[in-house]
């Protein structure tokens, strides 16, 4: 594996604009805050229809969601390509809905979802236990403050 970070952005929806340079920068900063200096990750932006299909097929939950993570270092074959962290899929439709609901800027909501998805790639899992949920929430808040400079 070559050294450094390889961050790919795929925009598979047309309705919402996305600043791919900003997302790349955020992703790099999240990885560095997690002390990951080498790795490959894909960030995929989709609409609700597409994320619903993935949520149904991979999690058996037949509804749209905001973010899905597909970690590649876990399970069978996880050691075949240790530098490939996985994919984070974000619905920009849900990002907009939650931004309005929580009265946040869409960019802030997108950053929150990106942090959440990236932490899943790195082994955090809020669904495992209450203590894991607290650990992940603390880490999300820490990273958000660091990136936003607060």
Task: Write structural notes for this entry.
By secondary structure, the chain is α/β, with parallel strands linked by helices. The protein has one domain: Collagenase (Catalytic Domain) (3-Layer(aba) Sandwich). Helices cover 47% and strands 19% of the residues. The protein contains 5 helices and 4 strands. A 4-stranded mixed beta sheet has the order 1-2-4-3. Helix 1 (20-33) links the parallel strand 1 and strand 2. The chain is globular, with a radius of gyration of 15 Å. 29% of the residues are buried. The mean pLDDT is 91.
Termini separation (Å)?
35 Å
Percent range for β-strand residues: 15-25%
Strands of the widest sheet, in order across it, are: 1-2-4-3
Q: What's the CATH H-level superfamily name?
A: Metalloproteases ("zincins"), catalytic domain
The ordered string of helix (H) and strand (E) elements is: EHEHEEHHH
Q: Which sheet architecture does the biggest sheet show?
A: 4 strands, mixed
The amount of helix comes to 40-55%
- Compute the number of structural domains: 1
What is the tally of beta strands? 4
CATH fold-level label:
Collagenase (Catalytic Domain)
If you compute it from the alpha carbons, what radius of gyration comes out, rounded to the nearest whole angstrom?
Answer: 15 Å
Question: Any idea what the shape is?
Answer: globular
Kindly provide the name of the CATH class: Alpha Beta
Structural class: alpha/beta
> What is the number of helical segments per DSSP (H or I, 4+ residues)?
5
Mean of all residue-level pLDDT scores: 91
Return the CATH architecture: 3-Layer(aba) Sandwich
Low-pLDDT residue spans: none
